[in-house]
Design brief:
Layout: H1 2-25, H2 46-78
Transmembrane segments: 50-71
Keywords: Membrane, Signal, Transmembrane, Transmembrane helix
Protein name: Secreted protein
């Protein structure tokens, strides 16, 4: 069992190292120097940011979950009773 644990730990280490290397290689993509032709728009306020990245996903999740629950209830009611 110890050998299997060591293999899993080694595999996890390789995956972690590979992910870190990929992030380091892509770091120029996060550079703050603008390129020619860049035309960034105005920044978002705190309220807009929270609405876009917090409230909108929560509302979308609730709508999808509500549709799933409503569809499940209608299917249960439509089943003929034996």
């Amino acid at each position: 069992m110890s050998n299997k644990v060591n293999k899993n730990a080694l595999r996890a280490g390789f995956i972690t190292a590979g992910t870190a290397l990929m992030l380091l290689m892509s770091s120029p993509a996060f550079a703050l120097t603008p390129d020619d032709g860049d035309d960034p728009g105005p920044g978002l306020s705190v309220i807009q940011t929270l609405g876009l990245y917090v409230a909108a996903p929560i509302v979308l999740f609730l709508v999808i979950a509500g549709l799933v629950v409503a569809g499940d209830k209608s299917r249960k009611q439509a089943k003929p009773k034996d």
